[in-house]
Design brief:
By secondary structure, this protein is mainly alpha-helical. The protein has one domain. The chain contains 20 helices and two strands. A two-stranded antiparallel sheet has the order 1-2. Helix 5 runs parallel beside helix 17 and helix 5 runs antiparallel to helix 18. The longest helix is centred in the first third of the chain and has 31 residues. The chain is globular, with a radius of gyration of 27 Å. The protein starts with a helix and ends with a helix.
């Protein structure tokens, strides 16, 4: 009798599973979301100068503008793409302290470049005779939006365990985080809990959206396309509308002056419904986005811009401070009445000047972000210390900006910047004794003759 292995046809070999290097949809969505963040911040300011005092207002405070914020408030998309990018990266390589250290380095370095420019610039401008109040206001605003990086740096470092959690929970992680955010809102608005409890949603809301991106990277949202995606989008926006109509939530998805409640500071659970609406709409458009990415030159442009996206986020507010300062202090031009004919006529010049300044900053400073992070041998303890220093420093800059403070005060920008720089130093590879030890010269010169064989050289080098 023949062996069964000869009677049965050989089982075909399974091709190795190929993990794509990039997901063009995630890349495009990330760039589009960041572009909307920049555009929204550039359209909101209403600036005027009364003597030496800068007056500011928000153009989006107009009664009819709030529906625009349902699409322009794209922080849900930013955290979704962050989770998706982390999940895709960790599918290709093992996650650990070195992976997190590289990501943390890339987030923090652009801020140090910003601090190196802005910390000395503020006193130089006032010493040159510019009014102190506008200069200090611009310095504070330049750091105000770094709250995103303060949180994002922590979430990024925790991405490896968050990806493993998503693999085990199969969606229960998102449900638990979302339920926690809803309970926080119920306690705040229904049970009279302290307002400080609302800051728990900074973690619950944004980590929940981050985890949705992780599940997308794992292929668990394969069904969310076409009609299903549109249904999710419609349901998400419908829940937002219902919450605004019946609850304490304001209609604007960004904080507005004078509102008793802000949907962003701290985040409310309604942002989860907004995330569902925006993600459903984005995933419905995914085939069109992928087709666009296949056009000649688009992929290369996406890769090039993706390498400077954090630099763009960090420097779009300094661009606003520079152009606004020139307009107000140099040319005596105030912002026209928002959405008036004069406002619309001046909009191309305003956005063109801002874009020119930002592009120049990206060309000069973007190479810092693109530069590979130095190797790190940091373990879990050093990585945790570096994360606390970097995120704490970024939070300090969020609260104080780059406005001058007395010396190295605990709440000053110099101390916050020093914390970020120290965090990066903690991550740096430490030289070992062997690396510092200089080779000892031989007492006797080597006799002339043929060089030793490679095997013998290797054995002598390793001490074999």
């Amino acid at each position: 009798m023949l062996p069964t292995t000869l009677l049965l046809p050989p089982e075909p070999a399974r091709p190795p599973r190929v993990v794509p290097a990039r997901d063009r949809f995630v890349d495009l969505l990330r760039l589009g979301a960041m572009a909307l963040v920049v555009l929204q911040h550039w359209l909101m300011p209403v600036l005027s100068l009364e003597g030496d005092v800068l007056r500011t207002a928000n153009a989006f405070a107009a009664d009819w503008v709030w529906p625009v914020t349902w699409l322009s408030q794209v922080m849900p998309l930013v955290f979704f793409t962050g989770g998706a990018a982390a999940g895709l990266s960790l599918r290709r390589r093992a996650g650990g302290p070195s992976w997190s250290a590289r990501r943390l380095h890339r987030l923090a370095v652009p801020v140090l470049v910003l601090a190196a420019v802005w910390l000395p610039l503020t006193p130089l401008l006032t010493a040159a005779g510019l009014p102190a109040q506008p200069v200090h206001t611009a310095a504070r605003y330049t750091g105000a939006l770094l709250w995103f990086l303060a949180l994002y740096s922590v979430v990024t470092v925790l991405a490896p365990p968050l990806v493993r959690l998503a693999a085990r929970s199969r969606g229960a992680d998102v449900v638990a985080l979302a339920a926690g955010a809803v309970l926080v809102d119920l306690a705040r608005f229904g049970l009279g809990a302290p307002e400080e409890l609302g800051w728990a949603n900074v973690v619950l809301v944004w980590v929940a959206v981050h985890q949705i991106g992780v599940h997308y990277a794992a292929g668990r949202l394969w069904w969310l396309r076409g009609s299903w995606a549109l249904a999710v989008a419609l349901g998400g926006f419908a829940v937002v509308a219902l919450a605004v109509a019946t609850g304490p939530y304001p209609p604007s998805m960004i904080g507005m002056p004078g509102d008793a409640v802000s949907n962003m500071g701290p985040p409310t659970a309604v942002l989860l419904a907004l995330a569902a609406g925006q993600l459903g709409l984005a995933l419905a458009l995914r085939p069109a986005a992928l087709a666009f990415a296949e056009r000649p030159g688009v992929g290369a442009a996406v890769d090039r811009l993706g390498g400077v996206v954090m630099t763009a986020y960090v420097w779009h507010t300094p661009a606003l401070a520079l152009v606004g300062g020139v307009a107000l202090l140099g040319l005596g031009l105030s912002t026209p009445e928002p959405f008036s004919p004069a406002w619309y006529l001046g909009l191309p010049l305003w956005l063109g000047a801002l874009s020119a300044v930002l592009v120049a900053a990206l060309r000069v400073l973007g190479r810092v972000e693109r530069r590979p992070a130095p190797p790190s041998t940091a373990g879990a303890a050093r990585l945790a210390a570096a994360t606390l220093l970097v995120s704490g420093g970024l939070l300090g800059l969020t609260l104080t900006g780059f406005a001058p403070a007395p010396g190295l005060g605990a709440a000053g920008p110099w101390t916050a910047t020093l914390a970020v720089a120290t965090g990066l130093l903690v991550l740096a590879r430490r030289p070992t004794i062997d690396r510092w030890r200089q080779p000892r010269p031989s007492a006797d010169p080597a006799p002339p003759g043929p060089s030793p064989a490679p095997a013998a050289t290797a054995a002598a080098t390793t001490g074999a």
